[in-house]
Amino acid sequence: MKKFLQKIGAFTIENFKVLGGITMLTKQTFSELFTRPFYLGLAAEQTVVIGVNSLLLVIITGITTGAVMTLQFGYGLEKFGGKLYVPKVVALSIVREMGPVFTSLMLAGRMGSGIAAEIGSMKVTQQIDAIRALGTSPIKRIIIPRLLAMLIALPILTIIADIIGLVAAMFVSMELGLGPHFFWEKVLQTLVMNDLWTGTAKTFFFAFCIVMVACYKGLQTEGGTRGVGDSTTWVVVVSSISIMVSDFFLTKLFLMI
Questions:
Q1: What does pTM read for this prediction?
Q2: In whole angstroms, what is the distance from residue 180 CA to residue 113 CA?
Q3: Is the pLDDT of residue 225 over 80?
């Protein structure tokens, strides 16, 4: 029992250290965000890397999400005579929850791990120290461009995933006997601007979580290439959990508003 309590205590202290470290890094990032120099070229480059290179992954995610959800709701509601409600249920589910969450999870796995590995490699090879020795802030050259790029790319990719998901849902609904005209009519009747706004607004917080968790762990990487591998695994797990947990509270907040 004593060893068990010691492990629980050590785990709790470690989590508080991580949370404190991310908080301090966030504070420092925002303090340097509006001061010169501004590396807009690096931000644009990272936007292309995150947005364009993740587009195929987002399209596949949108197709599978829309198709699977339509099948499940279609055959499930058909037993109760509710097949006509499939377009409404699928549209709300994709735009409000599935599109933002699944897209963010995909980018957490792809870009979160990539950012952590890149920064971790720079840390273990002392490139971060070299940047500081040259009188440049690593936060300005490394963290801020990636943060701005993710804040720009993730909402756009989420909207693309929503559209692709609805198109895939339309094709699957045709197999259920629902025509495309009927499908889009019900979708447009159901969705309002508030649905799109709440779903897209979540992605800004998700983007912030992905980048800050990845950058923090990358800057804390030690132990050579093995440490880089451990950091990437840690980032994927923690950022994914952060997205899932924060989604609940953000959904509750938006419903209250």
A1: 0.88
A2: 39
A3: no
